[in-house]
Structures are given as C-alpha cells and as structure tokens.
Write a structure and sequence with these properties.
7-stranded mixed β-sheet, about 230 residues, globular, 8 helices, Spore Coat Polysaccharide Biosynthesis Protein SpsA, Chain A, 7 strands, alpha/beta
Length: about 230
C-alpha cells in the first residue's frame, strides 16, 4: 500500500475524452498524493467537463476532439513552462492504472539519472493482459523497436514519466494513438536516457472497449514508419 504523501514538484497529466463514468473516482484517488493534476479535456461530448469543474484540478480544454496525442502534447506544453514542475507523469483516465504505480514513477523520475521512464506490462503482471491484446502489443513493440533502435518490452503504455529538462525534445505532432511510438522515436533520436518500470494494469470490460484494436495497431505502425523516415 502507498503512504499518504503530497507530491508537489511532479505534475500528473491526464488526457480525457468522454470519461464521465470513471473520471471522478480516478481523480479522487490521486488528489491526496499529487498537488498538481493537469486534466486535458479533449472535446468530450458527455458530462466530463461538468465533473472536471467540480474536482479542483488544472483543466485545459480542447473545443474539438483532436486525439490523445494532441491532448498529451497540450499538457506537455503547459507543464514545461511551470517553474515548480521538475517532472511529469502521464496517467490514463479509464481506471486501468494504479495510484501505487503513479507514485512509484513520480518518486523514481526525481531520483534516477534517466530522463524518461516507460511503463511496461510485460516485466510483471503480464498475465493481466488479455491474450489477443498481448499479441497486438508484442507485435507493435517488436516493429517499433526495429524502427527506432530502442529496446523496450512495451511500446504503448499510457503510464510514463519525464524529467522537465527533456520536455523541449518531446514535440508531438501525431494526434492519434501513434503518438506513443513517436515519443519513443524522439527519445531515441535525442539520445535521452531511459528505462522501464513495471505497471500493474487492470483491464475491465469498460477499459477494453476504449482500448487498442488491431486496426489501430496497423495505423500506428504506418504513422511510425512515416515519422522515422521523415525525421
């Protein structure tokens, strides 16, 4: 179990699109531990914004749904200008990430020598991943590693940590799911130090409906191939 402590200098970044069913619970579980929670509402059409307005978080709004990559990019651009922020941790809004992992990543990114920490579902707890999703993730990761010359076990985990000092090099211009692979490519091209840490991802029927599909995996690889060849 995690200890009750307030982290002031690591900002939590949460991209949100139509998460009225889970968002309040997710935010309330994090608020005792993180002073600065940045929620980027990516053009939600349900009651998500009404919920955010009552949660006392830093809220940034997209008027239209631009994609998760755009939401992460908006959040990074905001946080990198915050003098108090020494690092940031990205966290999904659908309830599949744990507070324990967020705290572990926040504490580690401050103390370690690496610039970036990637979350991995395959170091531990890989039995939590449904079989077909495991196949998609492994396939995308193998191709991503080949194209970016990286050595990761999981290329599309929403839980990551970045030192603020490296954020100027994380310039995302892919709006959709493939932004995850673009981040990996940017880390490789910029020679940033990185490592992986395990995450205990809990899949539910709700999170699976909102998650990655095989078609999305193919689109990700197409976008990644274009980005690695053009930069």
């Amino acid at each position: 179990m995690y200890n009750i402590c307030m982290i002031n200098d690591v900002y939590l970044l949460i991209p949100v699109y139509n998460e009225e069913l889970k968002l309040k619970k997710v935010i309330n579980s994090l608020k005792p531990h993180f002073k600065n929670i940045v929620v980027v509402n990516d053009g939600s059409t349900d009651s998500t914004q009404d919920i955010i307005d009552n949660l006392e978080v830093i809220n940034i709004k997209h008027l239209l749904n631009l994609g998760q990559g755009a939401a992460i990019s908006t959040g990074i651009n905001f946080i990198k200008d915050e003098a108090e922020a020494k690092a940031l941790v990205t966290f999904d809004a659908d309830g599949q990430h744990s507070v324990d992992d967020a705290l572990n990543f926040a504490n580690e990114i401050i103390s370690c020598e690496e610039d970036v920490i990637f979350g991995s579902r395959f170091i531990k707890h890989k039995e939590n991943i449904p079989a077909f999703k495991r196949f998609i993730l492994k396939f995308v990761t193998i191709v991503t590693n080949r194209l970016t010359k990286m050595k990761l076990t999981d290329s599309h985990n929403g839980l990551k940590a970045f030192k603020s000092s490296c954020l100027e090099k994380i310039v995302i211009d892919i709006d959709g799911f493939a932004f995850e692979s673009q981040i990996i490519n940017l880390v490789s091209k910029s020679n940033l130090k990185y490592k992986e840490m395990p995450t205990n991802t809990i899949y539910t029927e709700y999170s699976m409906k909102k998650g990655q599909k095989l078609r999305n995996g193919l689109i990700i690889l197409e976008d990644l191939f274009k980005s690695t060849k053009s930069k």
